[in-house]
Design a protein that fits this description.
TIM Barrel, 5'-methylthioadenosine deaminase activity (chains A, B), metal-binding (chains A, B), homodimer, MTA/SAH_deaminase (chains A, B), S-adenosylhomocysteine deaminase activity (chains A, B), Urease, subunit C, domain 1, 9-stranded mixed beta sheet, alpha/beta, 5-stranded parallel beta sheet
Chain lengths: 434, 434
């Protein structure tokens, strides 16, 4: 029987359903193997070979979930900002990304995982190229991830076919790998980068492989207009007709949506990964999060890549989500703190089709994050959910477990060599620029 | 002659005028007494009694400036969030504040200063009551502050008179105190909380004492409408007629402004303290920062109090300022990173009428902040201004000097007893709730 970990004398936030989930309480948590065995106010009897952790001064909560990103693009953080989207893409992002090798993807992904882990994210969605490198990196880091080969279909048919085959091979190879920490999805990049018949092939493959679909959708007003001009319908109806929503589906962004489109998403159980930081920085607009949630659409949070954010701290997206919808609507009750925190934890897990992740409950996977709540910005002692959302950040994270394994201890990553990753990321960027 | 401090082998950002000010360079900085003696790329010869600091892995920049807040209200952080403004004020803030004693103000202010210092703020504007306590606390902490007794005039004439006298006595007593670190201003709280004739008395006093004026203005649409209904003009014209702009003046918020009002502010050199976090959280709206800056109005950044923010980290306001105006306008070039950083440093200092603070230049006051730029979110090495604004936060601050004195070393505050301040803040809140 594997060793048990016992966290005693800590404060806990389960994020389980109902008001109790967002009410912090003093208590104990035990985990064994990859699961939480017990969590509650009562103490437990400690056995001689238990690993006992003193939880004083710490708040324990579920690991955060980042539902949209491109980890490898961390190499491009700060390469260029504050220019028009076209200049940014055409003069900076695309020419540099075209030079990306498998080694650059590994270096960028390792840097991204280091940043995510240290700021409390245990699960992430990743859409990129050279995905075998990403999957191997996830296996090493100990994180949980839903990985997908994002395919742009603006190319000849034989190249399209090769990319689709690669996406299928990757999805089959890695689904359920790394003790189940890795799952996969099919990912046509976006309606504006994939011809309709090519998107239909992804839907077909997703049905055959019984996999979900992840794609970008309605990020900018321009792409929505162009979709309507090219196909006679806006992106939501376009994707619906292509059968994309006949699979479990998560769309990234969903900034420009009509009431009718929101109803279609709700009807088909399509999730929306809200990326407030990236949407603001690229001036794409502000998603209708309140309307989406009112219609019953599941909304989670994503950072997008560090090239457009420019960080991977989900706490910052949680705070943005809690702030901007109030400011824009004039309603200070919009997206309350507890809802924003759910979007970054349990709603994120459900959006990635993970039902045993995202809350601290007996029987759930042991993805646990410890927060130092002794810092001045967590004082005085009041509502810890409010403090986390409005005053906290990923910098307050001290310890992280994923799948029952400790990955961060006292702000140091145990599975990743921090100095080496930083050096390799810088070396990889120099090679790209050479 | 006082001992010299020499920081060698560091990276520096001066924030001086022109493109050079936002271009980081490797070099050396020396300070003696309360001033910077030298900053430049060249090394200096070190004398035996110099204090020499190895700047490797650190970025040194001017201390941040917070141009609007109510420090003592840190005691109310997280007391209540996500309710309507009226419920928040009438049921939570005002009843609790009514019980504030001089001791509560001291406890809350100490907590606020601890948070500000550790996140790199060296100068702050503070408007509150029991200001002698605040001034004494600033003297102890070693910070720089522009302090003002914020007066609400919804009371009988004799009480008004007593408050005005107290504000005058405070402003005279403390202006220039603490080796010049403390300056003062006259502060009628807002046009909607002070009758016109009472505001006029503050203007008169400000002229007599040769002091600037600080006030809240046009924070919510409702107060603007009510001002127009009560006095026939919107707040800007109302304050102009009362002579408020005949003094150097800084208004907080300025969310709801017409083009004509912006022109009046520009014409009279009135500064606007932009408080994006608080304005979003209270659903007040989004200030027209791009229009203000284009019209030549000096815009700086404030956190407002921790009751409505709920943190005092100016880096977060810098990031919000750089993000939200892009998202709302659809223009990704709005408020570029360098401009946002200027708003949080040199523009903040100028907004508080401090001409020898806010940049790292020889002869300026030695208010210096060190940032750990080895962390993953500062990688790869690229534009440090971009990294600071879009990826950084106050948690990256490791060391702080103000007026040439080291206040924070290795993330520990040297002038303030952290554990005691945290304990006293919690005790003060318990007394308020009792």
């Amino acid at each position: 029987m594997t060793k048990r970990t016992v966290i005693r004398g800590g404060t806990f936030l389960t994020m389980a359903e109902g008001a109790e989930g967002t009410t912090a309480f003093a208590g104990t948590l035990t985990m064994r193997g990859d699961r939480i065995e017990y969590i509650g106010a009562a103490d437990v009897e400690v056995a001689p070979d238990d690993e006992v952790i003193d939880g004083a001064g710490k708040l324990y909560m579920p690991g955060l979930v980042n539902t949209h990103g491109h980890a490898a693009m961390s190499l491009l953080r700060g390469l260029k900002d504050d220019v028009s989207l076209q200049v940014w893409l055409q003069e900076y992002m695309w020419p540099t990304e075209a030079k990306f090798t498998a080694a650059s993807v590994r270096a960028g992904t390792m840097l991204a995982m280091l940043e995510m882990l240290k700021s409390g994210t245990t699960t992430f969605m990743d859409m990129y190229d050279h995905m075998d490198q990403v999957a191997e990196a996830v296996e090493e880091a100990g994180m949980r991830a839903c990985l997908n080969r994002g395919v742009i279909g603006l190319c000849p048919e034989d190249v399209q076919r090769a990319k689709l085959d690669e996406a299928i091979r990757f999805a089959k190879t890695w689904n359920g790998a790394a003790d189940g920490r890795i799952t996969t999805a099919m990912a046509p990049h976006a309606p504006y980068t994939c011809p309709p018949e090519f998107i239909a092939k992804f839907v077909e493959a997703a049905h055959e492989l019984n996999l979900p679909i992840h794609t970008h959708m309605s990020e900018t007003a321009r792409e929505v207009e162009e979709n309507a001009a090219a196909y006679g319908v806006r992106p939501v109806e376009h994707l619906r007709r292509l059968g994309v929503f006949s699979r479990p589906c998560l769309v990234a962004h969903g900034v420009h949506l009509t009431d009718e489109e929101i109803d279609i998403l709700a009807e088909h159980g399509v999730g929306v990964s809200h990326n407030p930081g990236s949407n603001l920085k690229l001036a794409s607009g502000i998603a209708r999060v309140t309307a989406l949630r009112q219609a019953g659409v599941r909304v989670s949070l994503g950072t997008d890549s560090a090239a457009s954010n420019n960080n991977l701290d989900i706490f910052r997206e949680i705070r943005l989500a809690a702030l901007i919808h109030k400011g824009v609507s004039g309603d200070p009750t919009a997206v309350p703190a507890g809802d924003a925190l759910r979007m970054g934890t349990v709603e994120g897990a459900r959006s990635l089709w993970l039902n045993d992740v995202g809350t601290l409950e007996a029987g759930m996977k042991a993805d646990v994050v410890a927060i130092d709540v002794t810092a001045p910005h967590y004082q005085p002692e009041a509502d810890l959910v409010s403090h986390l959302v409005y005053a906290g950040s990923g910098s307050d994270v001290t310890d992280v477990w994923a799948n029952g394994k400790r990955l961060v201890r006292g702000r140091r990553c145990l599975t990743l060599d921090e100095e080496r990753i930083v050096a390799e990321a810088n070396a990889a960027l120099r090679r790209l620029k050479a």
